[in-house]
Amino acid sequence: MQALLNKTKGDKVIWAAVILLTLVSMLVVYSSTGTLAYRLSKSAESYLFKQFAFTAVGLLIIYFAHRINYTIYSRVALILYVISIPLLIYTLFFGAEINEGTRWIKLPIINLTFQTSDLAKLALFMYLSRQLSRSQNEIKDFKKGFLPLIVPVAITCGLIAPANLSTALLIGATSLMLMFIGRVSVKHLALVIGVALIPLIILVSIATSYYNKEEGQSKELPAVLQVGRIPTWIKRIQDFAYADKHESAYQVQQMKIAIAKGGWFGLGPGNSEQRNFVPHPYSDSIYSIIIEEYGLIGGVVIVFIYLLFLFRSIRIFKKCPFAFGAFLALALSFTLVIQALVNMAVNVNLFPVTGVPLPLVSMGGSSFLFTCLAIGILLSVARNAEKMEGNAAATVNG
């Protein structure tokens, strides 16, 4: 055990944040899966053991990933990105439909669902970090610097958006933030934001146009708008925009009740009442259950842990001597923390309902394991930065 601890390097604060979040995950998942277990004629303990297994595998992934020199990801970035594109196309047309979305591929034999957007996101950020580190001399040039960056982002987001708009928006936002830090021209970024806002403005306009304020309900959409997940997007915008004019959507209502019951100190571990009514209390809505059981103070502590994670990641970015590692650390931490903040914002009704889980806390799946892989890569950057810093200090002292 001591030998394992000696080989565990990287930022100790990030390690502590990961351990804390996974412990919270096991407690809250165990508490919130009672209704699901009853519906599927299983025991709640079976979900606890499943979450424990995912946590154990996830921590092993973090450990082994942080032992690998992160520079290898620069060499495989393009290959992984090229592999991710046909997987996204296959998912879009032939993916398994779960919760009204085709975001998954069912893996044979092991019968596990795999969300291809997780691989695509990781591959894209590796590729962007590689390109940003290599093209700093021509980064302001539209053709040589900007296009090689924005085209892969547009392709990836375009393939993810039809089935998972929220994830596509998060990937796009993180990519633009990374490019801004990577000295990409603000004029070029503003152009992309302007183009991206056009379909969003159209969607919001349609949602407001097809809503009857007097009756407090949505009007019937024409056939041309009843394609794919467009009706779902419109409904979520309407529920958010007109929440004060009519009865909120069921999920929003139940999350609000859970938060209100929690008060300052919560009802105590395992004492949630709304877990039997909130849709997906073990994934999308898990933050409202945390507040119900651990109170507003518990909710603030979770926010603090994610912000501390981001702060330490920015510290790694500053310490890393090589541009690829610095950009990669920033991209992986940004996407994890932004996703966490969006999930929490949805739970407290500051953002329309999305299907985004709370990283490291929501019930395990392929997304949980890819999050662990991303953290392992981030710790690999930290480990190598610390090693080089130590070697430099030894050389100075010698």
Can you characterise this structure?
This protein has two domains: 218 residues, no CATH class; 135 residues, no CATH class. Helix content is 69%, strand content 5%. The protein is built from 14 helices and five strands. The protein has a three-stranded antiparallel β-sheet with strand order 1-2-3. A two-stranded antiparallel sheet has the order 4-5. Helix 7 runs antiparallel to helix 8 and helix 9 packs across helix 10. The longest helix is centred in the last third of the chain and has 34 residues. It is globular.
SS element count, helices: 14
Major sheet strand order? 1-2-3
Q: Which whole number gives the mean pLDDT?
A: 84
Number of domains in the coordinates?
2
Number of strands: 5
Write the layout of secondary structure elements.
Elements: H1 2-7, H2 12-32, H3 34-39, H4 44-67, H5 72-94, E1 96-98, E2 101-107, E3 112-115, H6 116-134, H7 142-160, H8 165-181, H9 186-209, E4 211-212, E5 217-218, H10 230-241, H11 250-262, H12 286-319, H13 323-347, H14 366-397
Antiparallel strand pairs: 1-2, 2-3, 4-5
